[in-house]
Amino acid sequence: MSQEEFLYTSSQFKELCETALKTARDRGATSAEIDVNEGLGRTVSVRKGDVETLEYNRDTGLGVTVYIGQQKGHASTSDLTVGAIKSTVEAAVSIAKLTASDSFSGLADRDRLAKDFKDLDLFHPWDISTDDSIELAKECEQAAFDVSPDISNSEGASVSMQQGHFMYANTNGFMQGYPSSRHYLSCSVTAGAGDQMQRDGWWSTARCANDMDSGKDIGRISGERALKKVGSKKIATRKVPVIFEAPVASGIIRHFTSGVSGGNLYRKQTFLKGEIGETIFPAFMSIEEDPFISRGLGSSWFDNEGVATKRRSVVKNGLLEGLFLSTYSARKLGLETTGNAGGSHNLFVSSSRGTLSFSDLLRQMGTGLLVTDLLGHGTNMVTGDYSRGASGFWVENGEIVHPVQEVTVAGNLREMFLNISAIGNDHLARSSLKVGSLLIDSMTVGGD
């Protein structure tokens, strides 16, 4: 795939945006914003050496939001012809005339819009043929089977390459966009037999295919992880230290970012106060946001409203320093946007004590539960109560003793955050949130 496969150029997107904005003004809108995008890709999946799916995708879309004073209307279309765009704008205007006025609605202020733009190296089309994609998926799956004869089945291996570009424009004079890519390679297999069959997998994603883990490594790790789960047992209910392995530790931090996001704060649907200076984590822990990482999965020089992003401290020495606000949520709270319309950018969790190797983290825990998988959605964002199904490994004297299944881990997120006692150095490159495994001093583990 290459940039030449896009149906629309950046210049054509600009013309479509200009047409939509002019139509909005002509139809009586006092302000408007347009988002036009195109994406394409291919995904190949194999299972037990045979091609299971071969999918091609190509999508285009245009969304228009208009304001008549502070009445808002939105409409969208997948048809990018001029006639369809004009009809979509007219629909948005008609909707706006029927909505109630909202004193907090409207475009981002002009002085908040991005003016400096950097090349963040986000666009790397993957020039791989369909046949080579199939061979890579087969190689990945075979590497999992090669781990052991006890790898008994497969849910398949997948290779996906995706690219797209967009343009965002508004009547405050902003019109910018860029192309980007994101590719994916995964494998999931089953080990064991009978009532001791266990499934696990591994995956990698990156802007550039060369930055992903190799197919053989992904397959091998998938097989090893599934094999280690064979022989899983239940354990008795107790309170013990818990390590959340890096792939699931990011979910713990995501609960924090959700708790201090504008939408949850102004609706009062969060267990956090959102007050700057509030103690959230232990004093050794900090979180920084950096939207300008080259090839970063969360990189961008502006947010979904054209507001300039910036490097900043979100948590410093355990204290809250930054929220995640869009223009609307900031106005509702009487604050300023943080350039996070659309969510957080690249987040980095660090420890002033230094991070530990995974084996040192196990030794520091001593006896407790290592959680490698979570099930269900038992998180109450209003109270912070947390209860999830889990599987993983029982640890004694810093050594893994046996795999564990059919347990729950429970606590309260406020207490869990404050009871983090160590952070691993095993953070994964496949996420825009970089955090290693987390050791929490005490949680309730529910078993037999």
Please tell me how large the radius of gyration is.
Answer: 24 Å
SSE order, one letter for each helix or strand = HEEEHHEEEEHEHHEEEHEHEEEHEEE
DSSP strand tally: 18
Major beta sheet summary: 7 strands, antiparallel
Highest-level CATH class of the largest domain: Alpha Beta
Shape: globular
Structural class call reads alpha+beta
CATH architecture designation of the largest domain: 2-Layer Sandwich
Strand portion, in percent?
35-45%
Our count of helices gives 9
Number of structural domains:
2
Mean pLDDT: 95
Helical content stands at: 10-25%
Poorly predicted regions are none
CATH 4th-level superfamily of the largest domain? PmbA/TldD superfamily
Reported by name, the CATH topology of the largest domain is: PmbA/TldD fold
Distance between the termini: 53 Å
